[in-house]
Amino acid sequence: MIPTQRSEIVYDVVVVGAGAAGVGVGVALRHAGIENFVICDRHTVGASFASWPAETRFITPSFPTNSIGMLDLNSIAIKTSPGFSLEVERP
């Protein structure tokens, strides 16, 4: 048996799942000043959304900003917008 070198990476936080909630937790961790964390995904970030039926898509349009500086109702964190990130009005 050939000995293998094993390196261990230690994180303060491990977030399981990279859907909307997992990414939102990652953003919240950054806002809280926690930098040493990892978000584990199964396939790609937000992959579970692709399996949702078309009827479950957002009804309201998604805009990165508005005239009065309100949060995008479809966002998961402050200063984010799924419409801007995905380059579509109704993600």
Can you walk through the features of this model?
Helices cover 19% and strands 9% of the residues. The protein has helices at residues 20-31, 82-86; strands at residues 13-16, 37-40. Strand 1, helix 1 and strand 2 form a beta-alpha-beta unit. The chain is flat and about 60 Å long.
Class from secondary-structure proportions:
alpha+beta
Gyration radius from CA atoms, angstroms: 17 Å
Beta-sheet strand percentage? Answer: 5-15%
Biggest β-sheet strands, sense, barrel:
2 strands, parallel
Average pLDDT over all residues: 77
> How far is it from the N-terminal to the C-terminal residue, by CA?
51 Å
The quaternary structure here is single chain
Jot down its keywords.
single chain, 2 domains, two-stranded parallel sheet
Topology record:
Elements: E1 13-16, H1 20-31, E2 37-40, H2 82-86
Parallel strand pairs: 1-2
Give a concise summary:
This protein has 91 residues and is of the alpha+beta class.
